[in-house]
């Protein structure tokens, strides 16, 4: 069985894309799963949801459940499936409900201030 650990992420975390701050939170969660990089999950209340569009894309994780995706619209481009959330996560990871994580890359950063 995979052991997933969720804890409060220390400090203030931000998400930036296309020169804009999409999220800033002191209440982010850090999810650790063996074999994967740690992932920061941001509470929806701390995200500028106007920049996120629902995506038809979805995936399934046997440990967390079904993930819904979001594309991020910036001034210059759309970052497809750059954010994801578990709307109905499994009980073991229930703390990530109503949180969104983001895929870091050339045009999107997740960092601790």
TrEMBL record:
What InterPro entries does this protein map onto? DUF427, DUF427_sf
Q: Which domain of life is it from?
A: Bacteria
Q: Which residues form the DUF427 domain?
A: 14-104
Under the heading PANTHER family, the entry gives: BLR5716 PROTEIN (PTHR34310:SF9), DUF427 DOMAIN PROTEIN (AFU_ORTHOLOGUE AFUA_3G02220) (PTHR34310)
Record's protein name: DUF427 domain-containing protein
> Which species is this UniProt entry from?
Roseovarius faecimaris
């Amino acid at each position: 069985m995979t052991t997933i650990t969720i804890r409060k992420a220390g400090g203030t975390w931000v998400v930036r894309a296309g020169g804009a701050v999409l999220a800033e939170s002191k209440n982010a969660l850090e999810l650790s799963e063996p074999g994967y990089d740690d992932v920061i999950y941001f509470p929806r209340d701390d995200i500028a949801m106007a920049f996120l569009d629902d995506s038809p894309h979805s995936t399934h994780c046997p440990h967390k459940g079904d993930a819904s995706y979001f594309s991020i619209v910036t001034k210059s481009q759309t970052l497809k499936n750059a954010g994801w959330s578990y709307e109905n996560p499994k009980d073991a990871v229930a703390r990530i409900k109503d949180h969104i994580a983001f895929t870091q890359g050339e045009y999107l950063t997740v960092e601790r201030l």
